[in-house]
Amino acid sequence: MRCFFVDPILLDSNPVLLEGDLHHQLSRVLRLAPGAPLCLFDGQGQVVHGELEALSKNVSRVRVLTRFRENPPPLSLRLIQALPKGEKMDLILQKGTELGVSRFTPWLAARSIARPSGDRQANRLKRWERIVREAAQQSRRPFLPRIDAPQTLGSAIGGQEQLKLVLWEQESMPLAHALPTSPPAEVAIMVGPEGGLTEDEVAQASSAGFVPVGLGRHILRTETAGFAVVAILEYLYGDFGRS
């Protein structure tokens, strides 16, 4: 069953009428025929299972079969990712969404090479939103992750999560020693850039309640370090450990 995000208002009707880009995708790109099963999300937990009823020149009609609301995930994960160079952020957003990240907070580290501004930053944010939406559709996540605009470290670490981790290979306790036995509802994971975090950045994060942790003998790239920790936390506290 193919899944798509739509405007929440559209899901209030039956049939659901889809126009614009989504209609073009259904009719011209995927070339779906009437009777094809579809899953529609509003990004906030509401889910509609239906079937493609008819296709006209400008509108796809979806007949609603069932309508329900999913519970929020047991673990809310925020990935505070230092902005990497090139297209690495695209990969981080795509795979992070598939793994269960609830919110992405890009930040500009002292050693960050990429520093978009103005129109370039606005265009990049639009592309990021599209990447997250497509990844959430592919992995059938009914809750659409949030993406923040790139910000300073001080703004990025200002959240109120129950557990806050900063990945740092120097003088850090093992990750396992920092994880509580009682499942936290919200976790923030801070990752540095290609050149690593500075001592001042780690000190600033620590003063905001972040615990410096290491990942053993292995030094992971900025685009994979967050994935490793997200997968571990999802297994221990989130959906990966649930039947």
From TrEMBL:
One of its GO terms (biological process) is rRNA base methylation. It comes from the Bacteria. Gene3D superfamilies: 3.40.1280.10. Residues 73-233 form the Ribosomal RNA small subunit methyltransferase E methyltransferase domain. GO terms for molecular function: rRNA (uridine-N3-)-methyltransferase activity. It catalyses: uridine(1498) in 16S rRNA + S-adenosyl-L-methionine = N(3)-methyluridine(1498) in 16S rRNA + S-adenosyl-L-homocysteine + H(+). One of its GO terms (cellular component) is cytoplasm. It is found in: Cytoplasm. Keywords: Cytoplasm, Methyltransferase, rRNA processing, S-adenosyl-L-methionine, Transferase. Its main location: cytoplasm. Its EC number is 2.1.1.193. Belongs to the RNA methyltransferase RsmE family. Specifically methylates the N3 position of the uracil ring of uridine 1498 (m3U1498) in 16S rRNA. Acts on the fully assembled 30S ribosomal subunit. NCBIfam families: PRK11713.1-5, RsmE family RNA methyltransferase. This is Ribosomal RNA small subunit methyltransferase E. It comes from Geoalkalibacter subterraneus.
